[in-house]
């Protein structure tokens, strides 16, 4: 260590020997130290050069050092922000790191066996990047190195144990400290992890219950050793990328001066046989697109995390022993201007070995034998009981002196699992070297320390250095060399085979790099946008398309209101229906996507059920079908079939029913990004609930009944919903433009790269945690999250040179839509005042949907079965007085009724072009007519009709090429519902898209479709 001027080297040494977090002290029989000469800050070392604000490595070691000019006093550096995402967050290292950050942030004090200890004195011990009087303290302030109390923590684990409980179970820290941090740590959400049982020891399989579930039915044998499928790899990569984006947005880590580091601290994997050589090969491997290569090549979970981190501009640190750092990953990180560092943290025995052997070599001795053993009883050592995983660990432990080319050195390593001593590592090393005249020289060391106490400071250091290096634009190879002191075998960019393995030599390399960085100007921010290639800029407003010399009239954005009446018939007559999406443009025809939240269940339909008046009689049915049920999956599936960007936020169990829900969404064409399921991972014996199941007899006349077990929905809370909505908003930019369909072809999504503009929330009366007064607060908070997402998207894609939109259109571009569906509400759902939905919640609702019976109940009207237009207007009057902007009533075969509030100012924030106080009554389209594309005699199945109507109406509300009138929006919703109710259309592999619906409505084609009579007679 190089103490600052005026400080005592002896006091420095005494402070350096104190253990981090005041855990059991490290005891050494022999302590070695080698003094290093001071290095002038006015001269760069031979391997570093400064070129135009970038640091790189010189081509020749003999190149003369470059003198630096005396720098002017720099302005106060802008504080940096560091995020840490830990793979294996629930393990001993992750829990201890969380406790250290919490103690430092709150400046805690606690009692230990040797007295009272405070975080201000001990939380940073062992962390070189945090000690102002440590070996690198002279550079910390100048480089604005992030302090650990300001770091933000998150991560994944395949075990569901809460973080505070994991810390308690580990027995690493004093109980008084654990008592103070346990509850705050339990509130940190641990994300489900990537799990491939073939890569870890058999001892880890039984506890791996908190895992990401690809949208396929998984094998019941969780210990199967087959590799991940191609579809699973794609899904897992997208989910991890979404987790990273959500973390960055939630904690404000997306701007300049912010950097996120993903650290592998999970169980050691066995060596992988797959090591991609290029970034293109790596991405093709994960996506299963390697030409001429079978798609069943194995991909380790650590490589999935590393690839996701690189694509999101985050550094990846391999703290384990596996061979994750391949050339393809290093190249991918370089393309995205982040770092790939490793391998295997050098925390205890190995770190001292590199110092001890360096000492012997400095004395002129010739090391010949190093015989070492260590034993402990934590989960990492338990995992090493597997021969495949211990092979990876011994590889790095035995290869630490490779750069010295000591061919005569016999280096032996043994590791032993001893459960009784837990996390407390104990190691013994005997060093034998030859001295003068070949006489042997022997030294013996013995060390005891908590393994996590040794490892956590390295995790803090690497996150702090990555943030500081990224802010200065340090080259990848220079960063790898500067952080080599952290790893047993430094691997990564460039050729690190010549890196001196001596600990003090590596520390000197770090100090030289920091000195060079102090005088460097900060470049542009390192972290790029998550997308690997930025999308092409949209054409200027009103620009002609590829097929037209002049733009069609419907492509013009009007400058004043009203602006809806256009000559659509002439335009539509010239169009080919199959090319409408291309003509209108995917991102220009709609304003954004729809998040569907609320109740979720798996519907078991008893199709063709008979019905008698005698409730005790036996009724038969023709067949059983399953479909996605509940508001969230049902509406999301309907939007996916229409080709509208969507996401389902709901609560399910970890069971086959949840797997089936995901599979059904995939069949509807929804991509993995549409799955924001909140999974209840608690075992049933501890109060865990499974996925809700509903049994629906679909009677021969097309109507249905419903029996439902609410199950996991009972525990759904507003906080869980808001977290899911926030994560969906954060990952909105990664939504795919196309989704392959199992029936062949692709589903193309309108507005795939646009933000979510609408929240559709369904069945709050069946969700005990989200009803009553909680509903209004939830809807307000959800609206704010969507508003923040739209504002963030606008700021990132804004163009100050673009022409300003008219004020009415600018209002449309800022709007957020909140929709509420009250399907299935009964008098049993009323509160003590006879209200189903409190007025405070109704004031937050832009679009309210209900059936005729449900509408009568919520409006307090008599249930007499006479649901004529006068009844509809009375319901509308009540709803609009409560603050609802648009009311949608679905009346079965009687059609639908849609009305707008008479308050023009209230309606202006939703659709300023619609007339206030307007109402539309439409007859229902007939089932089984050739005009609609169906076949005569098709059956009727009303299950999901209301959800699909809502989906179609919200899509029409968001549509803007062309903008639709109130009547046209109602027709579009009715046509979407017809494709759900008509069994022939529902079974069609080529489901109608929203583009085609709008085309049919705008051309007047739907006016010619046969209708049902409003009186429910004859054709009805």
TrEMBL record:
Recorded catalytic activity of this chain's protein: D-glucose 6-phosphate = 1D-myo-inositol 3-phosphate
Q: Does the keyword DNA repair apply?
A: no
GO BP term, pick one: phospholipid biosynthetic process
Which EC number(s) does the record attach to this protein? 5.5.1.4
Matching entries from Pfam families are given as: Inos-1-P_synth, NAD_binding_5, PfkB
Would you say which domain of life the source belongs to? Eukaryota
Annotated Myo-inositol-1-phosphate synthase GAPDH-like domain residues: 348-452
Class of enzymatic activity (EC top level): isomerase
Q: What is this protein called?
A: inositol-3-phosphate synthase
Organism whose genome encodes this protein: Rhizochromulina marina
